Amino acid sequence: MHRVLEASGKKVILLGNEAVVRGALEAGVGFATTYPGTPASEIGDTFSEIAKEAGIYFEYSVNEKVATEAAAGAAWCGVRSLVSFKHFGLNVAADSVYPIAFHGVKAGMVIVVADDPGCWSSGQSEQDSRWYARLMHIPMLEPSNPEECKSFTKLAFELSERFGIPVFIRLTTRVSHASAGVRLGKIVKGMTKGRFVKGDEKWHNMPPRILTRHNEINKKLAEIREWAKEKGLNQIYYKGSEKQFGIIANGAAFNYVMESLKLFGLKIPVLKLNMTWPFPEKTISRFIKGLKSVLIVEELEPIIEKEVEGIAKSVNPKLKIHGKDILPEFCELRQETVDNALARLTGARQKIKDLEISGKNLSKIEFPKRTPTLCPGCPHRATFWEVKAATTSDTVFGGDIGCYILGIHKPIEMQDFIISMGAVQGLSHGISKVSDKQQVVAFIGDSTFFHAGIPGLINIAYNSSSPLVVVLDNFATAMTGHQPHPGTGETGMGEQVEKIKIEDIATACGIKEIAVIDIWDVKGSIAKIREMLQKPGPKLVIARGECRLQFMRRARRAGTKIPTAEIDPKKCSRCSVCVYKFGCPAIHRDRKKDLYYIDPDMCWGCGVCISVCPFSAISFKKEEGDESKTT
Amino acid sequence: MKAKLLDEYNIVVVGVGGQGLLTLAGAIARAALEHGYEVRAAELHGLSQRFGSIETSLRFGKNIYSPIVRQASADLVIALEPAEAIKACYYASQKTAFLLDTKPIVPNIMYQEGIEYPSIDEIKARINIFSKKIITVNASEDTKALTGSTIQANIYLLGRAASESLIPLKKEWLIKGIEEVVPPATVEANKKVFEAGWRSKFNF
């Protein structure tokens, strides 16, 4: 049994994301959707693992907007629903989330958005999704740890259903990906079937009725603010311990504050904001009244700080408000940053003697460099190699969101621009239109293609430009953990369904020149790409080859031995192409022994390097499993 | 019997994406919970998994809020890849014990930029500035000899850390932790590797 389904009363280690799922189950969720994205992915993946056993419905929707709409549809029919995604997913979903707030919901609907301060897994921008709560008139709860991930999700359903409004749970990487012991409550078997009641004007709000709704939603938020106050949702720690100085914090920042106070042996009142929208004005007023100064500890933008500034004008105009004057307005907070800020404001002495020594010592040593890289045997590395061989150095290589973003690094360097999911085709179209002498190659992954690639492709065909679109089809949403997508023939419930073919979609989009290549056939692929590049107008190549990580996992489970490649030092001319131009992480150079060799522990047996070597020095090992020879 | 509780114990596990850091930390976390501790662990998933540097931070004790180990506050660093141990020096002080696998994973970027991968002695010399408590283990090598693959070297290191008394938790709870976090089909194999790691301390 999966740990999120363990019996009530037990305390089990759960990831913040898993605790969200348990909270939803304890609230009787019946319908869950997602599009995967770090740091939110494990919410959907956990639902996918347990949905059948728990008797609920789960799907990996084609993108976050569709996922949101599906969840709202269920909630309109009386089935409690949850949709989860990373912060960029909310940008995709925004066009529907906003009106869903105005239209309201019947059963509870929870929208989980996971931000990534510090951009551990997010290349396109650093985003503070708390703004969306204000923009869209949607209440927002912010847990700090896995226990709260569970209890706040449960509470969010209660709130949503009581006020007929969707509710945000906002997580950050350090909450989503924190694990802790969580005490389990009772799972409530929720409804999975409902009915759409026709004739309710609520679901279509042509003007001027939408203005009435706007007015209503403002009133609703005021009621929710009162409700939160009655519930005592925003808590004060170390209440009354100190009269002059106070701290206000939310989410992960709260954890750092409490650790700092522990370190310094300080007791200072801390107001922990668990609901950051609607903003708890009265609670803040009471907290800051009489204080000389207050420190706001929040990650990213000074949202709480600006609110407090506004409230202080009438309540306590002399209050000294600290926040972004001593804390960074970008990146995630570090424990030491919060320690330093508190030491500065309280005069507390740094208690870790070793800290000073640590700083000095750290400046003395050199840190070895390591960048994330495409795995050994990665089909993208093969495709990049083939496309590079078929194109000129003037070619513009457009990139998109997925593992292939790692093609940015040496020696590949074939991701000249990347902005957001599916954007490569629109950008490539614009570049091709105005720079018509330059060849543009637009790389897009299979899952990304389904997610947001199709309108861009239609635009290329209909408004006619001539980039070569290369769909990197590796049979999975690989970067986020190999979730299925419409091209894989599998659903979030684990059922086998008919695959939707990328070539069929491309044909329907109006692309006349379509080719499918087997990327493991290096020579054949190069020839085909060359041929396609000669064709005028829109053209698309589907570069097909399974994610090697997924392939290896399956092989390991089945106990299949995968052959590894080796370099014959007698045939090797030391030309260095394999290490310096191809760059597979399994291939190494021993400078002292003047040898190029393949690490058998890292080789995943794709065999592409065999074709890459200009001197035919690489081949598969004849005999496998002779352990005594390995040194 | 009520077990005695430490105020806090801080562990940092470092390595390269795909080496099983989360499994290792997960097993310890479960054992700590069994002991009656409050447990907080911080993991990184996503982009960092693809052979990049990763660190997992694990804390247990009486009253823990943040999952992240503070600078110069680690009690134990487990490095599944030797050069990555250098990066963990941020968390080290003279009290920190280092446990390192000796098998390097040389990143291609080092070749691209003409950087020489440091030898085990150089790695030790850099760590020595912070702490003298360094144990190196041929975990990958031994695990491969035992199982035909290096995949379970993480569990081998856990066994060694336990026999070196670097994790203040009962052996049987760590084994129970392993049972909970590894795929069911590999439980027995992992337990054997754990024992091999445990015994490696006495094999000299």
Category by helix and strand content of chain B: alpha/beta
Number of separate strands of chain A: 23
Q: Which regions of chain A have little confidence, pLDDT < 50, spanning 5+ residues?
A: 626-631
Mean pLDDT of chain B: 94
Biggest sheet: strand arrangement of chain B = 2-3-1-4-5-6
State Rg of chain B: 16 Å
Biggest sheet strand order of chain A reads 3-2-4-5-7-6-12
Q: Strand-residue fraction of chain A? A: 15-25%
Task: Report the end-to-end length of chain A measured between terminal Cα atoms.
Answer: 41 Å
Helix content of chain B: 25-40%
Number of strands of chain B: 6
User: How confident overall, as mean pLDDT of chain A?
Assistant: 95
Let me know the largest β-sheet of chain A.
7 strands, mixed
Most residues in contact, chain pair and counts: A-B, 76 and 68 residues
Q: What is the subunit arrangement here?
A: heterodimer
Runs of chain B with pLDDT <50, length 5+?
none
Number of helices of chain B: 8
Q: How would you describe this structure in keywords?
A:
heterodimer; A: 631 residues; alpha/beta; seven-stranded mixed sheet; five-stranded mixed sheet; 21 helices; 23 strands; disordered C terminus; B: 204 residues; six-stranded mixed sheet; 8 helices; 6 strands
Explained architecture:
The complex is a heterodimer of chains A (631) and B (204). Chain A is built from 21 helices and 23 strands. Chain A is α/β, with parallel strands linked by helices and 631 residues long. Chain A has a 7-stranded mixed beta sheet with strand order 3-2-4-5-7-6-12, with helices on both faces. Chain A has a 5-stranded mixed beta sheet with strand order 9-11-10-13-14, with helices on both faces. Chain A is globular, with a radius of gyration of 28 Å. Chain A starts with 10 loop residues before the first strand and ends in an 11-residue tail after the last strand. In chain B, α2 links the parallel β4 and β5. In chain B, strands 2-3-1-4-5-6 form a 6-stranded mixed beta sheet, with helices on both faces. The chains are: A alpha/beta (631), B alpha/beta (204). The interface between A and B is large, with 76 and 68 residues. β8 of chain A pairs antiparallel with β2 of chain B.
